[in-house]
Design brief:
2 domains; three-stranded antiparallel sheet; globular; 17 helices; alpha/beta; about 400 residues; single chain
Length: about 400
């Protein structure tokens, strides 16, 4: 037995002139507001990544190693969509805009350190409906760091990657990878820190010996660049070791597999407050990277060519979301806190203490001359990128 089609009662007559002057919409809003609902959908997609032939290039493997081989296993990722609608019948029919359920451009976004505030624009913007307003629905998934994010963009699972180390992007570009930067992601290195268990004998990072290990996420990530900077600038002897994201790194540190861990707020703040770990170095200790754009948003060349209008709209929504993230709207910190699983107070401490708004300005890559030199000094590139190469690599859509 099928349900009969819903029947809507519509008042055809308009409001009379006599009533317009004294008519308030407040009673109407009060009456209909309980019928307004959020439409939130999520689904699990199982996909098998494809290996781009670029990753078999001997020169690429010389710099990045075989870290991408383990990432070819099938994996699950979560796709989310958010919109609003109105309940129009007593048996539950909902009226909504068509783009909420179909017709919007879907953009797949790989995010290194998905919980970090600097990388929150896609997540928060979707939950606030900002990207949907621009006709875009995002499918976001987290990675263990820049190396994995870069691979996802090059080989196809992601249209956009967030949190790619600038020097790492330069290295990939110089080796022929089809990547382009469409925005700056973060300026400076003060958002990352290195720590030890509370009972560790190490008081400073420079106390570590060549027999000890110092964590970073993945090759090409900001944490990797900083770790190499510690070695070069401070003379740190500990062996830089890839450990993945902050949660996995903490497990390795507390179990004694790694001597010095790395992290970025909000992860680790609770352990710091509880006295379980101690910070022995900050990214700012590698002073050479201060004031530089250390992370980027990237896309694939083919995506930029075939979906330019979508990328332009993505960036409009991205900028609008950043403005909202630093507004006085209490929903901002509440939404972030709920997503990450922290208190609103910790969310505010994370944003205000580590991520001033200018640090995530997407429209300007700062310190390019120094970044180019550092990329050569740290052996990310064999020679400095030229101005023409930089102009080809960095293509930020205009406001």
């Amino acid at each position: 037995m099928t349900n009969p089609p819903p029947v809507l009662k519509i008042q055809e007559e308009g409001i009379s002139k006599e009533m317009r002057a004294r008519t308030s919409f407040a009673p109407v809003i009060k009456k209909v507001s309980p019928s307004i609902v959020n439409i939130y959908s999520t689904m699990t997609i199982r996909e098998r990544p494809t290996m781009n032939p670029f990753f078999n290039d001997p020169m690429f493997r010389r710099f990045f190693g075989d870290q991408f081989g383990d990432q070819m296993q099938p994996r699950n990722r979560k796709a989310e969509s958010l919109g609003s609608g109105v309940i129009v019948t007593s048996d539950g029919y909902i009226l909504t805009a068509n783009h909420v359920v179909e017709g919007a451009d879907t953009v797949k976004v790989a995010i290194g350190q998905i919980d970090a505030w600097a990388n929150q624009a896609p997540t928060l913007g979707m939950k606030a409906g900002i990207f949907q307003k621009h006709g875009i629905v995002l499918e976001t998934f987290g990675t263990q760091g820049a190396g994995e994010t870069l691979q996802a963009v090059i080989s196809g699972p992601a249209d956009i990657g967030i949190g790619i180390g600038t020097a790492g992007a330069m290295r990939a570009f110089a080796r022929g990878a089809p990547v382009r930067a469409i925005a700056a992601a973060y300026v400076g290195v003060g958002d990352q820190y290195w720590y030890v268990p509370a009972n560790s004998p190490l008081q400073r990072l420079t106390d570590a010996t060549e027999k000890q290990t110092m964590a970073y996420s993945t090759n090409g990530a900001t944490s990797h660049v900083i770790a190499l900077g510690f070695v070069k600038q401070l003379g740190v002897k500990a062996k830089p070791t890839a450990t993945g994201g902050p949660p996995g790194t903490l497990t390795q540190v507390m179990s004694g597999q790694i001597d010095v861990g790395w992290s970025a707020p909000p992860f680790g703040l609770q352990q710091l407050d509880e006295g379980k770990i101690r910070i022995i170095a900050s990214g700012n200790d590698a002073t050479v990277f201060k004031g530089q754009t250390v992370r980027l948003l990237i896309t694939n060349v083919s995506t930029l060519a075939s979906r330019k209008s979508v990328i332009d709209r993505f960036m409009k929504a991205y900028r609008e979301t950043i403005d909202w993230m630093y507004s006085d709207d209490p929903a901002v910190l509440k939404t972030y806190a709920d997503f990450v699983g922290i208190s609103v107070a910790t969310a505010k401490r994370t944003r205000d203490g580590f991520f001033p708004k200018p640090s995530i300005d997407p429209d300007k890559v700062v310190g390019l001359d120094l970044i180019v030199q550092d990329a050569v000094a740290l052996k990310y590139t064999a020679a400095p990128l030229t101005k023409d190469q930089l102009a080809e690599l960095i293509q930020i859509p205009p406001r």
